Amino acid sequence: MRTAPSSSDARKAIALSGTEAAAEVTAEVARQMRESGVIPKLAVVLVGDDAASAVYVANKARQAERIGFGSLQIRLPAETSGAELSAVIRRLNDDPSVHGILVQLPLPPHLPAEAVIREIAPEKDVDGFHEVNVGRMTIQSSRNAFVPCTPLGCMHLIHRAIGHELKGLSAVVIGKSNIVGRPMATLLMHAECTVSVAHIHTRNIEQLCRTADILVVAAGSPGLVRGDWIKPGAVVIDVGINRIAGEAGTHRLAGDVAYDEAAEVASFITPVPGGVGPMTIAMLMKNTYAAALQAERANPRRHAGLRARSNG
Ligand code: GUN
């Protein structure tokens, strides 16, 4: 745990490096993998040609390969039907060499995300989006639940900043998506924080934010949170990754928080890029390793080949 500057301290907030924390998490997964000899395989499915999604999927597959996982990238055309996508998912469900399945969201509008996610075997749902995993996580029997990677990464950064004792702290989450806002609020509740979830219809959102010891922003609105929305000494986690178009086809990434202003007030703040983004991928590696380990334990003989190959 690091020491936060006190609210009377004129120093800037400490930048919480997701790049650094993600490297530690990934190194630990690699160490466990070497020790157990269990080598996970991650299948990533991308439907359509959304440029940002293509970058995220490539980063996930690249990281999986770098750490020594098996990796499978399946790219399907935007006009893929629901039945065709189901068939791909069923094939991956039935393939014992695949431990984790991730279908990149958003999907093209004709494919209903909820129904597609329901097709993924819960024990391979390393995104933690399947209703079985959401249910398990929500009722806190999280032993067998996969928890969504971005909120898991945010919690890791919060703990890294101020330790594990969050009891009684006031937390505000901006955004109520299934991917970030809702699971984030659940994890903060499990940590005994007093949690508010703000969204587009929230009244006096600035005022609400000023009550937050922990402020997690996943609004998808560049620079939404200004310095004067922040309680002095707060921990600020910026989940926003907004591509801002520049000249001649260039772009830069900006978060949902006005970083320079917020850094004058907060004790800890995540930068964009280099904050939450790398954590999402690190937690995906962690979940995929956990899925492989669970599969190995459930059926050691079926997976014995993997183990033998890695040892030999
Ligand atoms: N789209 C944005 N974030 C995510 C994520 O964590 N997983 C998937 N599957 N799609 C996403």
Automatic annotation (TrEMBL):
GO molecular function, one term: methenyltetrahydrofolate cyclohydrolase activity
Biological or metabolic pathway of the protein: One-carbon metabolism; tetrahydrofolate interconversion
Stretches assigned to the Tetrahydrofolate dehydrogenase/cyclohydrolase catalytic domain: 16-127
Catalytic activity from the UniProt record: (6R)-5,10-methylene-5,6,7,8-tetrahydrofolate + NADP(+) = (6R)-5,10-methenyltetrahydrofolate + NADPH; (6R)-5,10-methenyltetrahydrofolate + H2O = (6R)-10-formyltetrahydrofolate + H(+)
Alphabetized SUPFAM superfamilies for the sequence: Aminoacid dehydrogenase-like, N-terminal domain (SSF53223), NAD(P)-binding Rossmann-fold domains (SSF51735)
Entry keyword set: Amino-acid biosynthesis, Histidine biosynthesis, Hydrolase, Methionine biosynthesis, Multifunctional enzyme, NADP, One-carbon metabolism, Oxidoreductase, Purine biosynthesis
GO cellular component, one term: cytosol
Domain named Tetrahydrofolate dehydrogenase/cyclohydrolase NAD(P)-binding: residues: 148-294
Catalytic activity, EC: 1.5.1.5, 3.5.4.9
Keyword hit for NAD: no
Residues binding NADP(+): 175-177, 200, 241
Cited Pfam families: THF_DHG_CYH, THF_DHG_CYH_C
NCBIfam families reported for this sequence: PRK14188.1
Protein task: Catalyzes the oxidation of 5,10-methylenetetrahydrofolate to 5,10-methenyltetrahydrofolate and then the hydrolysis of 5,10-methenyltetrahydrofolate to 10-formyltetrahydrofolate.
Description of how the protein assembles with itself and partners: Homodimer.
Protein name: Bifunctional protein FolD
